[in-house]
Amino acid sequence: xxxxxxxxxxxxxxxxxxxxxxxxxxxxxxxxxxxxxxxxxxxxxxxxxxxxxxxxxxxxxxxxxxxxxxxxxxxxxxxxxxxxx
Length: 85
Fold this sequence. Notes:
The protein has strands at residues 5-10, 16-21, 32-36, 44-48, 54-58, 65-72, 77-83. By secondary structure, it is an all-beta fold. The radius of gyration is 13 Å and the shape is globular. The mean pLDDT is 94. The chain has one domain: Immunoglobulin-like (Sandwich). The relative contact order is 0.28. Helices cover 0% and strands 49% of the residues. A hairpin with a 5-residue loop joins β1 and β2 (16-21).
């Protein structure tokens, strides 16, 4: 099992990113089926990686907090609030 997660980072050009990995359970199935960005009003690009992870690059460099919903395959949602220091 590899747990799913969402994390944030700043790249060398000072753009802020949200990185989402859906995780894998003991049966090799994804733990999370989707990530939602409720009320996101900022422009971003989305890069889908071969391991099913997603990297969101936000073009507003002044973002200080990102709220996202990690949606499990059964429909349950884990809400994450990620803040840049």
